[in-house]
Amino acid sequence: MALLEVRDLDVRFALRQGEVRALRNINFTLDRGERLGLVGESGAGKSVAAFSLLNLIAKPGYIAGGSIRFDGQELIGLGERRLRRIRGNRVSMIFQDPMMTLNPVLTIGEQMVECLKAHRRIASREARAIALHKLQQVQIPSPETRLDQYPHELSGGMRQRVIIAIALLLDPDIIIADEPTTALDVTIQAEIMTLLLELCEKHNVGLILITHDLGVVSQVTQRMLVMYAGRVIEAGPTREIINDPQHPYTQGLMNALPQMATPGSHLNQIRGSMPPLSQLPSGCAFHPRCDFVTRADGSERPACSRQVPDFVASGNCRVACHMVAEMLAQEAATEEDRP
């Protein structure tokens, strides 16, 4: 049985102008120690999916349907007291901006001790010793000194290491990292991701990494989900998707990487922009931006603009695309015709 199992997750926001579906039929699993990446443009629904796992969706958002099972226990509908035993304890979260996460008027040590005492009956001296050990694990220099410093006295990279140390305080089974290196420069980003990977492997901690950086995903995760307009459109082993993306949107993301452009030329980009969730087009949400709506012979795929594509199996991956489904059907027909 998977440690985390999400089935048909549906999240909506009740707005004055009408209800908006932020997530549609999200399905995935996470085994103990496994590393999963959630990839997509801003607004694709990555962070909403992560917040939903711990029921951190703020009103007017709410979980409209589906199932989230952690270690066999259903989390949707679970009372706040029972959910608190899991949130921050067995499932920890690393947010984008450490300065928004850390309390500016408390020292690092006070915040870490407070976190431990919120979940365990523990003496202050013992809690401080655990906090010191966790700072040592994330390779912060002079950890004894850092415990008595305030967040503003630390660099951005140091603050993010502190956040990771806090996430590890209670020895969680899963860490959800929401764009953990957004505000850091490239060299510090690499250090933080290497550290996070080493800690997860050493302690057999599952990782859900939310990012738009395909380079980071390829180095850190084992499986990935590509999201677009609140829906998963491609899922499978990271190496297979990176080496041979099937969905046109995934192909566009890969081609947009700087190293994919010819030196001296403009960077590749996907034309247009993601539609607002309140104004999704009919059929495949990506079809207004897709270069493959029209076939090579000039004819159009009417299903692209009329019907939401179902998932089809392509190798070890699942892809929601009418073009891929059509190609697979043609290949199957060709195989049947062979003597």
TrEMBL record:
Key words, A-Z: ATP-binding, Cell membrane, Membrane, Nucleotide-binding, Transport
Kindly give the SUPFAM superfamilies that the UniProt entry links to this protein. Answer: P-loop containing nucleoside triphosphate hydrolases
InterPro entries, per database record:
AAA+_ATPase, ABC_Ni/Peptide_Import, ABC_transporter-like_ATP-bd, ABC_transporter-like_CS, Oligopep_ABC_C, P-loop_NTPase
Q: Which Pfam families match?
A: ABC_tran, oligo_HPY
- Mind telling me which Gene3D superfamilies this protein's record contains? P-loop containing nucleotide triphosphate hydrolases (3.40.50.300)
Lineage, top-rank taxon, reads Bacteria
Q: What is this protein called?
A: ABC-type dipeptide transporter
- Its source organism is Bisbaumannia pacifica
